[in-house]
C-alpha cells in the first residue's frame, strides 16, 4: 500500500462521515456544546462558512438534518478550492481517491513544492486532489494565499501524513448526497422561516497577529458588522441561528442587545502564528432562540 494511503475497516458510511480536511477554526472540540444548543426542530440547515463542516457531518450522521424528509442542507464558503473539492466528493470520490493514491506514493519535499506551484489547474479532480494533498502535508493544515490568490504555505514536518483516506472520502460522498454546495459569500444565503443557520465566520481578532486570512479577502470589522445585520434580518424572518466567534469587545458590542443571547465557551485555539497564542481561549456562542444556559 502506498505511504500515506490508509485503509480503514468499513463501517456504515452514513454514520462515520467527518471533515475530509484539517481546517483552521474547525469545530470538532466544541461539537458537544454546539449539539446541545441546536434547535429541537428546524426545516432546512445552512452552513455558510462551512470550512471542514464538522457540525454538518455530526448533525447528518445523527439524522438531525431531515434530508429527504422535506429538509435540505445548504453548505457554502468563499474558498474556491474547498468548494470544488466538496463538489467532486459529492459527485464521485473514486477518481479523486486514485489521484490521491498517486500523490501519496510520490510524496516528498520536492513533490510538495511541485504540486504547490500548480496554481492554474482546470481539471476539477486535480484541483480537489491538490487541495487535499496540500492540506494534509502543509504546515499546520493552514490554507493561506498570497495577494495573487496563490497558496503559499510551506511543507509541514509529518512522518507519514494520511494523504489518502478512501473510506473517509466515501463516507463524505454518502453524507453529501442531496446537499446543495455553493461557492458564495455568506450574504448570499436565503434561508426561510424555521430554517436553522450555523455561522462560524473567521474569528474577529483585535491585533494583526491573529490568523484571519482564509481566502483572498480579509474578514474585517465591516464583514463582522454585515454579519450581525444579516442576523437581525434572519431573526425578523423567523430563522433560527447560532453563531461562533471569539470573545472580543467588538463581538460583544455587536450582539449586546436582544434578540441575541451570548454564552461564553472555552475553546482550544489551534492555529496562531505566535506559538504562545495557542491554548484555551474564550469563544462566544450567540443564538436568537433558547435559554441562555442550555439548548432548546
Ligand atoms: C472558522 S472557518 C469555518 C470552520 C468550520 N466551521 C469547520 O468546522 O471547519 C471560516 C470559514 O469561512 C470562510 N469564509 C471567509 N470569508 C467568507 C465569506 N465572506 N463568506 C463565506 N465564507 C467565508 C473561510 O473560507 C473558512 O472556511
Q: Can you describe this structure?
A:
There is one protein chain. The chain is an alpha/beta fold. It folds into 2 domains: 13-79 and 179-287, Rossmann fold (3-Layer(aba) Sandwich), CATH 3.40.50.150; 88-168, Adenine-specific Methyltransferase, domain 2. 31% of the residues lie in helices and 14% in strands. It has 9 helices and 7 strands; from the N terminus they run αβαβαααααββαβαββ. Strands 3-2-1-4-5-7-6 form a 7-stranded mixed beta sheet, with helices on both faces. Helix 8 links the parallel strand 4 (196-199) and strand 5. Helix 3 packs across helix 6 and helix 4 crosses helix 6. The longest helix is centred in the C-terminal third of the chain and has 16 residues, at 221-236. The protein is globular. It starts with 30 loop residues before the first helix and ends in a 9-residue tail after the last strand. The model is unreliable at 1-11, 209-216, 270-277 and 292-296 (pLDDT under 50). S-adenosylmethionine binds at residues 19, 23, 25-27, 48-49, 51-52, 54, 77-79, 185-186, 200-202, 214-215, 219, 223.
Amino acid at each position: 500500500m502506498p505511504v500515506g494511503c490508509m485503509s480503514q475497516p468499513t463501517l456504515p458510511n452514513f454514520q462515520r462521515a467527518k471533515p475530509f480536511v484539517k481546517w483552521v477554526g474547525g469545530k470538532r472540540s466544541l461539537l458537544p456544546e454546539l449539539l446541545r444548543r441546536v434547535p429541537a426542530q428546524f426545516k432546512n440547515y445552512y452552513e455558510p462558512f462551512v470550512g471542514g463542516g464538522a457540525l454538518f457531518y455530526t448533525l447528518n450522521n445523527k439524522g438531525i438534518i431531515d434530508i429527504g424528509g422535506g429538509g435540505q442542507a445548504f453548505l457554502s464558503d468563499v474558498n474556491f478550492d474547498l468548494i470544488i473539492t466538496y463538489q467532486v466528493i459529492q459527485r464521485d470520490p473514486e477518481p479523486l481517491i486514485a489521484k490521491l493514491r498517486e500523490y501519496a506514493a510520490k510524496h516528498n519535499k520536492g513533490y510538495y513544492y511541485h504540486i504547490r506551484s500548480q496554481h492554474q489547474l482546470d481539471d476539477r479532480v486535480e484541483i480537489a486532489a491538490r487541495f487535499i494533498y496540500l492540506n494534509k502535508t502543509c504546515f499546520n493544515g493552514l490554507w493561506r494565499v498570497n495577494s495573487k490568490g496563490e497558496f503559499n504555505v510551506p511543507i509541514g514536518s509529518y512522518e507519514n501524513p494520511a494523504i489518502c483516506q478512501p473510506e473517509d472520502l466515501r463516507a463524505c460522498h454518502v453524507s453529501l448526497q442531496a446537499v446543495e454546495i455553493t461557492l458564495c459569500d455568506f450574504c448570499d444565503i436565503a434561508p426561510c422561516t424555521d430554517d436553522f443557520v450555523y455561522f462560524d465566520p473567521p474569528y474577529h481578532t483585535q491585533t494583526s497577529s491573529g490568523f484571519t486570512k482564509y481566502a483572498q479577502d480579509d474578514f474585517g470589522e465591516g464583514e463582522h458588522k454585515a454579519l450581525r445585520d444579516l442576523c437581525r434580518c434572519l431573526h425578523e424572518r423567523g430563522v433560527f441561528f447560532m453563531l461562533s466567534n471569539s470573545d472580543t469587545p467588538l463581538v460583544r458590542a455587536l450582539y449586546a442587545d436582544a434578540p441575541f443571547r451570548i454564552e461564553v465557551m472555552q475553546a482550544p485555539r489551534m492555529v496562531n502564528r505566535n506559538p504562545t497564542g495557542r491554548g484555551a481561549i474564550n469563544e462566544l456562542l450567540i443564538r436568537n432562540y433558547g435559554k441562555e444556559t442550555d439548548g432548546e
